[in-house]
Amino acid sequence: MTEYLGKVTEGSLSRGLMVRLEAPIEEVRAGRLVAIQGENRRFLGYISDVSLASLSPQLASAPPPSDPFLAQVLAGTGYYGQARVLPKLILGEPSALLEGPQPATAIPPHFSPVHEASQQDVELVYGREDKRRFVVGSPLDMEVKVCLDAPLFVQRSNGVFGKTGSGKTFFTRLLLINLIQKGEAVNLVFDMHGEYGWGRPTESGVEAKGLKQTAVASRVAVFALDREAAQRRRVSPDHIVEIGYEQIEPEDMGLLRQALNLTAIAAEATYTLTKRYRQGWLAKALSLTDEELKELNIPDMTYDNLRRGLDRLRRLPFLVEHPPEDSVGRILKALQEGTSVVLDFGRHSDLTTYVLVANVLTRRLHEIYQKLTDQAQAEGAPGPTPLVITIEEAHRFLAPEVAGQTIFGTIAREMRKYNVTLLVIDQRPSGIDPEVLSQLGTRVLFPLDDERDIEAALAGSQDRAELKNVLSRLPTQRHALILGHALPMPLAIQVEDVTSSQFLSKYGVPRAGEGRPRSKIGDLFPDE
Amino acid sequence: MSGPTTGDAGGKSAMEIAVKVGEVIEARTEEFQAESATLHQPPPLGSLIWVREGEIDIYAVTGSAATGSREPGRQAVALGQDEEELPQAYPQLSKLLRTTFVGLVVGYQEKGELRHYLPPRPVRLHNFVYLCPSEEAQRFTRSLDFLSLLAAQRQDEALGACLRLVSHVHPNAEAFLVGAGRELVPLLAGDVGRLHALLRRLRP
Ligand SMILES: Nc1ncnc2c1ncn2[C@@H]1O[C@H](COP(=O)(O)OP(=O)(O)O)[C@@H](O)[C@H]1O
Ligand SMILES: [Mg+2]
Q1: Partner residue opposite A73 with nearest CB, options B182, B189, B192
Q2: For B198, nearest residue in chain A (alpha carbons)
Q3: B3 part of a folded domain
Q4: How high does pLDDT run on average in chain A?
Q5: In sequence order, what are the beta bridge partners of B49?
Q6: Buried b (16+ CB within 10 A) or exposed e, A394-406
Q7: B164 contacts in A (CB within 8 Å)?
Q8: Is the pLDDT of residue B56 over 50?
């Protein structure tokens, strides 16, 4: 039997139902999933607010009860707790059995009893773990598992937001493992801090597993920008990525303007150069003669500024004039074979590199996906396997000033037209173009401090005020609010503990080369 | 215990052990005056009392009591005697004085069914008034709907005394008092001073 919380006393569909609490108020948290049993229907909703009430204004202004007997008598009668519950779904309608839960368009009558939702309710709404669905956590203050529908999830670009240290990366790992395992999508992960391929020690000292240390290891390749750094971390990348001059485009210069200290005119000049020299522009730009500059109508000062910027760019070791191997080709090949690629930035985790490489590679891949999709469509064949591109520090690519020009902005806006979607990870959603935010299908929101970030993270969602209340009061450890396309109703969850032995025995495999049976948990954590 | 016949039979056996405490001498629907069977010994304030009329039995809570001259308009005078010497010095005194008390009507029983509101008509004059036996008191106070009648008449002292007395016939006196207190909160939510004072009277 689930915990009894209280009775409905008043309220409305739009503003929520007031529930007079009989459960101890301190245990009733905003965000908790509750079921209301009406006469013929069962309603599911969540607590959006809790408040204290008095039976009369006189009681409200009276001094506190003077002794324990008075306190006992007045608790729950003269003074009581109230919860506001937003009804979201109707479960108990005859049609619901066939079509699943329906949006709540009615409310239960006065004095309907309110309980915490049951396991059955949660499973009815969020499904059980199966071929499509995977467990992401449990509803606030409940033991039951909540699932996300993988095919539904990858239909759109999605976002994971939260302040630094709130659990974004850990959650994204959980997502990636499952997306790979369910075979719903291949992934390209721009792994700025080297956290996805091989795990790094956590704050609590337990090592969190990277994708290469889990059950999906064989379907993941780690590419790196820097062999030395990778080897120092005892990581053996499958391929070292190099980028040719020809792959850099004016669009990239726009993104890197600040980092390279380029004036607007200098960044603009790169377009002039491309027009004239096509793909050879960068090599050429490094050695322009005075006459050429005059002919191109580029002032000396602008050229000096551009030169300095390009010199800085040239010093990046992975940027070579003619790379021996086409890295984009390698990535594409892996993806087409169903292998997800983690691009580990190693010691190059500075933003210039990250932004440049992610943008260059994504642009090329998108072009190719576009061709493949169009081709497949013309032939009536299925398109390429959906590709999910994971980017951390997403606001660098999707800020309002640049989202219009970068490939990431394009992908976010075109939804899934070319079978490419984004998994946007960021600690500052307010820095992302609102238009891009509005295109995100499913959002996973960890606690955010800044009011503007909370507003941005919830922009365009239903019941914003109520969700804001829930989000801004989430417990900080492993808690998130998930909402949007892949979910029948928003839900506050405690994310699975990915360092727990249950989780590791479900997803973990021994380290490469050890070859021990994977059922022995102790072997996953040899004492070091 | 709930059928009309058992209720009646239970009443009859209880009747045998019920203590007669007075006789009705004045009656209104809401309350009656009774003359106490014993001078100076009215039923205690708040005690549950009972007037049986055959068709219906009327339940009341003992309210204010008074002792004075039997003759209207005459007032007793000071006699200056010690209490022990008094009966000898004035043997006729007990004939001249009487004690009366008020019964605050709180419900009735008709065909074995208890009602916690006013009966259709007042009690009849000269009917005897009995102390409600514990079993009957417990049965009647299982519902506390009658509290609103007393609260409306501002009979807070009688009400508090009644609940204290009656609590002892319930298996868990403290739980009974807490429950009764909780019933009073909505009745007196608008007058916190009165509510607190009354609740303090209920403290076990
Ligand atoms: N699902 C989880 N299971 C176990 N520990 C977690 C989980 N999520 C977060 N943590 C803890 O919180 C810390 C920060 O999480 P992380 O994902 O790196 O935050 P972010 O990427 O938002 O900065 C981790 O190092 C880990 O100790
Ligand atoms: Mg992180």
Answers
A1: B182
A2: A70
A3: no
A4: 88
A5: B60, B131
A6: bbbbbbeebbebb
A7: none
A8: yes
Find the ligand nearest to A163 CA: 1
Q: Which residue has its alpha carbon closest to ligand 1 atom 24?
A: A202
Please state the domain count of chain B.
Answer: 1
B48-52 and A186-191 beta bridge pairing? unpaired
Dihedral, CA atoms, A137, A139, A145, A147, nearest 10 degrees? -70
Question: Helix, strand, or coil here: A350?
Answer: coil
User: Which two structure tokens, joined as six digits, stand for A285?
Assistant: 């730009």
Q: In this model, does residue A209 exceed pLDDT 90?
A: no
Q: Report CB contact under 8 Å: A58, B200.
A: no
Q: Cα torsion for A453, A455, A461, A465, to the nearest 10°?
A: 130
CB of A212 closer than 8 Å to CB of A189: no
B190 vs A78: CB contact, 8 Å cut-off?
no
Q: What is the DSSP letter of A75?
A: B
pLDDT, one tens digit per residue, over B76-129 is 888 888 888 888 888 888 888 999 999 999 999 999 899 999 999 999 999 999
Q: Is A102 in the pocket of ligand 1 (CB under 6 A)?
A: no
Among candidates A59, A65, A66 on the partner chain, residue whose Cβ is nearest the Cβ of B189 = A59
State the residue for tokens 């509290």. Answer: B147
Residue A194 phi, psi dihedral angles, 5° rounding: 60, 50
pLDDT tens digits along A213-256: 888 999 999 999 877 777 776 678 888 899 999 999 998 888 88
**H or E stretch at A444:** strand A442-445
Q: Quick check: is B8 in a domain?
A: no
Burial of A14 per CB tally in 10 Å (0-12, 13-18, 19+): exposed
Is B59 a member of any domain?
yes
Ligand nearest to the CA of A427: 1
Phi and psi angles of residue A365, each rounded to the nearest 5 degrees, phi first: -65, -40
User: Which of A56, A73, A74 has the CB atom closest to B190's CB atom?
Assistant: A56
Rounding to the nearest 10 degrees, give the CA dihedral for residues A309, A315, A318, A324. 100
Quote the CA–CA distance of A370 and A332 in Å, as a whole number.
13
Look at strands A186-191 and A42-54 and give their pairing.
unpaired
Q: Ligand 1 pocket test: pick from A202, A474, A502 the residue with the most ligand atoms within 8 Å of its Cβ.
A: A202
CA distance A116 to A254: 52
**Which residues 74-113 of chain A have a CB within 8 Å of chain B?**
74, 76-78
| pLDDT of B151 above 60 | yes
ipTM of this complex > 0.90? no
pTM of the model as a whole: 0.81
> Measured between alpha carbons, how far is B124 from B34 in angstroms, rounded to an integer?
11
B109 in Cβ contact with B59 (< 8 Å): yes
Q: Note whether A66 contacts B178, CB cutoff 8 Å.
A: no
How far apart are the C-alpha atoms of A88 and B201, rounded to whole Å?
48
Residue A323, SS3? coil
Q: Does ligand 1 come within 6 angstroms of the Cβ of A109?
A: no
The answer as to whether B2 is a domain residue is no
- Contact pairs from chain A to chain B, CB under 8 Å: 48
Pocket residue to mutate for ligand 1, from A148, A170, A173, most atoms within 8 A of Cβ: A170
Q: Reduce the DSSP state of residue B167 to 3 states and report it.
A: helix
- B56-69 vs B48-52, strand pairing mode: antiparallel
SS3 B50: strand
| CB contact at 8 A, B61 and B75 | no
**Structural domain harbouring B23:** 14-200
Helix (H, G, I), strand (E, B) or coil at A425: strand
Token pair 């302040």 is found at A163
- Output the pLDDT for position B10: 44
